[in-house]
Each structure stands twice: as C-alpha cells, then as structure tokens.
Amino acid sequence: MMPSAKLITVPNFPLSISYVDLIALVWFIFCWYGYNIVNDNLVKSTRSLRARMHLYRIQWMVTSLSRDNRVLDINILANLQSSVSFLASTSILIIAGLLAALISSEKALEIVSNLPFSCEMDQHTWNSKVFVLIFLFVYAFFKFTWALRQFNYSAVLLGAMPTPKGSPEQFLPTARRAAIICTLAAKHMNRGLRSFYFAIAVLAWFIDPWLFIIATGWVVIVMYRREYRSEVVQVLNMPSENILSDS
C-alpha cells in the first residue's frame, strides 16, 4: 500500500481526509455540479442530444392530436415510467449495500488494502468516502422519483388532449405543454443517470485520489461525447434527404 498523506480531521464528526483527497473531492464536486449546470441551463446548442430529443417530443405530442386511439402513446409513456422506476429501485438497493459497507468497514478495508497501488486508509477515511457514494445515490433516487412523477403528469396531459374533431391547431399549446413536461422529466432522469456515472469515478477514490481525479475527468469526457459528439447525435442531426439516400 502507498503511505497515507497528512490528514484533516473534524472534531466530533466522522470525517478524516488527506489534503490530496480534499483536492480530489473539490475537483469532483466542481465537475459533477458544474456539468449539470452548464449542460442543462447554460448550453443552448440546438444540435445537442437533449435539444433534438425535445423537438421529437414536440413532434410526438403534436402527432398524437391526430390519433383517435392513443394506446401507442400511453405504452411509450408506460415504458419510460418503468425504466425510471427500475433505476429508482436500483438506487435504493445500492444505498442499502453501502450502509452495509459502513457496518462491515473493517472487512472492507482489509479487502481494499490488498489491492495494488491502493493508499493507506483508516476507518474514518473509509466512512467519509462511503458517505459520498451514499449522497450520490440518494440524490439519484430523488431525481428518478421526481422524473417518474413528471412522466405521470405527462400521461395525464396526454389523456386530456381532445380527440381530433376539426382543426387540431387550437390544441397545439396543450401538445407543446405535454412535450415540455416530458423533457423536464428526461432532464431529471439524466441527472440521476449522471450520478451513476460519477459514482463509478468515486470507486477509484478507494484506490488512489489521483486516480479519482483522472476518473472524474474521464466521466465528464464520456458524457460530453455522448451528448454532443455521439453517432446518435449525428443521425438525429442528419437532413431527411440524407437519411433516405443512406437507406
């Protein structure tokens, strides 16, 4: 094991962390919180995955105005709800497992100490890192459950749409409103999923804080590429004539 660095301790609080660990934690918070703020609120690119999917949700809801039978639309929303519900349930199970790791911290520390290149860690440091993981999955659980509620609201708005009798243009605001609620639900679902991604980076913290810093940056790069540079984004941004010619 690598020698431990000088520790910062807080009296009467189960926190013990080295200076390098503190730098890594600050970098992690900056990347995690900063990416959510920049991607969801500051970046206004119309070619991102989030922006393109919002346009398709509007198209979906507007198209549903012309359908007498909306079983297909309800099935799509039910599928989205089941996916979010599964992720929320998974978050609860992971939180339970992490609480068990706190109880059996001595055995867990013994296992981690046998890993190559792992840093020396006392029980308070272990607990501090596990608490960070617990916070991430608690945050993810609240985001998933809020997204689930918003998908339920979307289903209500979809059911409130009138059947096509005459011109559907007067009901376009209702369709757009349902699409916006769907997009908000997807936004919170994505934030929960990002917590899962960043939790993978936190696992590297149990081995080495420098590896934690690298893993956090790697997660940001992966999420950026999937949001703005992935093949899915390229296909969604292709003109219709190019898609027809490729097929």
Automatic annotation (TrEMBL):
Keyword annotations: Membrane, Transmembrane, Transmembrane helix
Has UniProt tagged this entry with the keyword Transmembrane?
Answer: yes
Q: Which residues cross the membrane?
A: 12-35, 84-103, 130-148, 196-221
Q: Which domain of life is it from?
A: Bacteria
State the name under which the record lists this protein: DUF599 domain-containing protein
Q: Which organism does this record belong to?
A: Caedimonas varicaedens
Q: What is the lineage of its organism?
A: Bacteria, Pseudomonadati, Pseudomonadota, Alphaproteobacteria, Holosporales
